[in-house]
Amino acid sequence: MAYTLDQMTPQPFAERRSAPRQPLLLSWRDGQAAEPRAEIVAGLRAPQASIAPKFFYDSLGSQLFAAITALEVYYPTRTEASILAARGAEIADALGRGRPLVDLGAGDGAKAVRLFPLLQPSRYVAVDIATDYLGESLRRLQREHPALEMVGVAMDFSQRLVLPPEAGPGPRTLFYPGSSIGNFTPAEALQLLTRARAAAQGGRLLIGVDLVKDRRVLEAAYDDPQGVTAAFNLNALVHVNRLLGSDFEPRDWRHVAFFDEAQSRIEMHLEARRPLMLHWPGGERSFAADECIHTENSYKYSVEGFDGLLRTAGWSRTRAWTDARGWFAVFVAE
Predict the structure, then answer these.
(1) Which of 35, 44, 104, 312 can pair with 176 through a Cys bridge, CB separation 3.0 to 4.6 Å?
(2) Which range of residues forms the domain containing residue 263?
(3) Are residues 154 and 285 in the same domain?
(4) 69 in a structural domain
């Protein structure tokens, strides 16, 4: 395990008692984790070309996703927030108070901030793959909440979830909102939930899960008429160009999203508008017109199905709260 201290915070907590509190930003370095360039190339060379959804999240991608969550057709964020607002006291009682709060896929931290009054965390630990966006968000949050210790951990937790000592001692509360667990296949989700149980160190998990519903509602949420989700999807090509040195031209691709009922998942793709050849240093691939790059899955669960997944991963004493329409569920597990 290796973490490096970002230059954003030059001194540890103990040495900055008298100065205005600054967040601590740590970056994960692991020689065993997949190197991004190699992972992207493997995806592009596969018979069904793919780009992992984590490559959506450069700084612009993170901002675009924040914009998606504000769209009228994108129900998960506001539905999850309504459950937490209506049942917050019960949920806090089930979680316990005063523990480190670990926010997986933190983004701008807005979802976790709503929990601060309820959970009274001893420390806020924001984990995200987008290092620059994470640093910007933490600096803002620290100014807004100067009394709370804040730690940022820049890492790809889809590969490995090992938190540094600066995350605070266990038991910890892990928070994974927004139905992001749906981006993983059920087998991958099981692995992540198992790793999260170890990272909680005897604590608890608060996780948001999108439920199966009418396909028209689902497909509208992932293909909004304003085109924000399309811009988010296409921006992945710009991010890949920077990481790989490739020559994607976003204008050559169109956004496609649909619900696959057999696999209970939304699929997002980028479809070639014309025959083209993609190049990167050391490689190339041709695409026929209408050939797709698979960029995201978003699995939809039943309450019973996800409860079973949690229990298979070793969590116990699970509880779930849903909205009145049964569109979304918030789970607590011990």
Answers:
(1) 104
(2) 43-59+215-299
(3) no
(4) no
Q: Are residues 88 and 169 in the same domain?
A: yes
Segments in 30-185 forming alpha helices (H) = 36-45, 59-69, 75-95, 110-113, 116-119, 131-144
Q: What is the pTM of this model?
A: 0.89
Q: What letters, b where the CB count within 10 A reaches 16 and e where it falls short, cover 200-229?
A: bbebbbbbbbbbbbeeeebebbbbbeeebb
Judge contact between 58 and 242, C-beta under 8 A: yes
Q: Are 139 and 112 in contact (CB under 8 A)?
A: no
**Consecutive 10-residue averages of pLDDT for the chain (334 residues):** 53 53 83 74 98 94 95 97 97 97 95 97 95 92 96 91 94 97 97 97 98 98 98 98 98 98 98 98 98 98 98 98 98 98
Distance CA 207, CA 137 (A): 21
Q: What angle do CA 69, 82, 97 make, to 5 degrees?
A: 105
* Two tokens, residue 322: 């849903």
